[in-house]
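Batch manifest, entry 17 of 40.
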Amino acid sequence: MSYGGSMTKKAGAITLLLLAILGVSQAEKPKEERRTVTMILDRTVSNLEGEFVPAAEAMPEDKFGFAPTSGEFKGARTYAQQIKHVAAVNYELGAALLEEKPPVDIGEESGPASVTSKAEVLKYLKDSFAYVHKAIATINETNFAGTVRSPFGEGWVSRLGLATAISAHGYDHYGQMVVYLRMNGIVPPASR
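Output type: structure tokens
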């Protein structure tokens, strides 16, 4: 997966926005309610998870192989492939933050070929979020700007940059999944 300059710029913008929010939230909160970098980053992952998982669950199993085929959708990932891709990248980003190899097969960001049923895909996804939360828990005020090796072969990146990429990437695919749901007559859970 190559984000190129576009993703780097998005991650940079998200990082600046996050730091601005952190600064404002600290100024408005009494010290006993102070939010840490860890708490803020974990909340962004929880927000994504809270929308992404219910959307993944909303598609019936017989539609998990659905992908639009006409026009600009030619060659698009299926619904299940969208989910497995996000889960695989979650593992990839989490492993980079933890400075270890992914604990599961990420199949070149497509997830393991053996994971095919809706139950298996959803378990792979949910487990990836648990792993990302574990990785986010290692980020704090003293190391968020520190660097780790990029999982995408681009040298070194900040922990904060990788942490914000989790939500940026997930929401990109969430938007695609919303389109797939609506094309199948399903109102996404977040829109109900």
